[in-house]
UniProtKB/TrEMBL annotation:
Chain intervals for the UniProt region annotation (Disordered): 220-260, 413-434
Native source organism of the sequence: Clitoria ternatea (Butterfly pea)
Positions with a binding annotation for ATP: 34, 38, 82, 87, 95, 101-103, 122-127, 174, 385
Biased composition (Basic and acidic residues): 251-260
Family label: Belongs to the heat shock protein 90 family.
Protein's recorded name: Endoplasmin homolog
UniProt keyword list: ATP-binding, Calcium, Chaperone, Endoplasmic reticulum, Glycoprotein, Nucleotide-binding, Signal
Main localisation: endoplasmic reticulum
Amino acid sequence: RSNAEKFEFQAEVSRLMDIIINSLYSNKDIFLRELISNASDALDKIRFLSLTDKEVLGEGDNTKLDIQIKLDKEKKILSIRDRGIGMTKEDLIKNLGTIAKSGTSAFVEKMQTSGDLNLIGQFGVGFYSVYLVADYVEVISKHNDDKQYVWESKADGAFAISEDTWNEPLGRGTEIRLHLKDEAGEYLEESKLKELVKRYSEFINFPIYIWASKEVDVEVPADEDDSSEEEDSESSSKEESEDEDADKSDDEEKKPKTKTVKETTYEWELLNDVKAIWLRNPKDVTDEEYTKFYHSLAKDFSAEKPLAWSHFTAEGDVEFKAVLFVPPKAPHDLYEGYYNSNKSNLKLYVRRVFISDEFDELLPKYLSFLKGLVDSDTLPLNVSREMLQQHSSLKTIKKKLIRKALDMIRRIADEDPDESSDKEKKEEVASDNDEKKGQYTKFWNEFGKSIKLGIIEDATNRNRLAKLLRFESTKSEGKLTSLDQYISRMKAGQKDIFYITGTSKEQLEKSPFLERLKKKNYEVIFFTDPVDEYLMQYLMDYEDKKFQNVSKEGLKLGKDSKDKELKESFKDLTKWWKKALSGDNVDDVKISNRLDNTPCVVVTSKFGWSANMERIMQSQTL
Ligand code: ADP
Ligand code: MG
């Protein structure tokens, strides 16, 4: 178009589009759920604004918050339209030309190798999946603050924007027109689209309509061979109306001659029933429904089931319903910018209206890996996000959510037959919980670090979190074990929980610090994650047992009768040695009972940094 303004895509977008348009990826269906998800987001936005300003919705059809799908078989166009917030010209340039989220290059890289586009929605680039099925796309959009514009691109590195002077005015919202590739003809079939909407967009909270054809029987005047009948038929229809006026005539003879023919008509057909799964009684919701709901909520369509979920109603001063999920996998950037960014993944609704998914007041950072939603009747609807953020109820909600979340995680362990050390119980649990087997190890491998960060950050729930802790030890035989299991194996008279820190289990197993402990059959925990050093500065005790780093001063392995004697006879040597190393080098030189073969070791003082901590601080791992 002559007056169109031309723009180039950000290099990264261009690369992404190249890959998508040339993709042989077989599951091209995903574009539709991405478009519907965007439409739904846009509708959420306008509905939220309308809470404080009714005017934004306008009037007439503009107030209908729905999504419409239409097909043009002849022109091979599939269009999806919403009455959401729309995009200004500036929005179009920014949102459909650049990538805001980080981690996109990682995604592009991954896609090039694996070819799996399923996770595209999680990376904030779902829109571009339209180029799986279309080679030319138009986005027509009208935002309340601007005129109507058309964005268009053939995925050739550039896009154009023009003020829209030729299409029908949208009123408000966005229409995406996909000019389908020849090989994407299946998306012109109503039945295909209906199936896709049912499969992928079941939990969209706005009505989705399709402009559906329908074969209907219509009565038409029967054709008569004789053209002279024309007058007759006219008169007979006259007769009919006269009949009606005359009220009910049973005389068949007087009825006009008609016949039935098939005719195709079109009408909007509703494809989803807008149901809020969280309002239903948990007893009536099937596992499959929860799984599907999780997929749509998390934009995670990797067929995997969530590891656990919790669906509950909180009553009392603050009433709310919530559904929480533990995802099957940690997102790639879970700990990226952990301390600076807010990555809460809970959606907040107030009385069924979506408010925000950026409320970091709902869950502490360490639980940000959870997905889910909260719908509260107690929170006010007509206030700004900022005001809501300060509402006193949020504290109560948060407290309850944490409690429920930790219960849910603990349940993964409780139901996992691998977790039970009691053999009989193990078998009993195993019989009806086969699919729960190994789930806690899976959880731990994905999210264990979050539990550790929780112990560091959340003093109130420290003990609850410590119960969830898993590690390897000198007695765990390559498996994960827990503090409770450690305690159950403690030797009579053993007061402390022993642990050692280092870079790997293999390295630690050779440590001279373990010699004597092993010989005396004491169990020692291996902590090999850099975060463990910090963890152990916060985790002082568990079930009245103190933690003792075996490479630090203070290790007590029970009294030995020879201790005193030895101390006496080596007095001169230790004195001399301390003098020789005095100054900055050592605090003290002592006779030790922690060694067996090794003649001497360097031990850290009780409140000093362990050797491992020194190493970590030098490399600034965390
Ligand atoms: P994401 O939805 O994760 O942000 P997308 O690539 O799907 O990533 O969309 C990019 C952006 O384009 C959205 O964040 C939104 O701002 C804008 N957008 C896309 N579709 C619509 C729409 N139907 N209405 C309004 N804005 C839209
Ligand atoms: Mg999207």
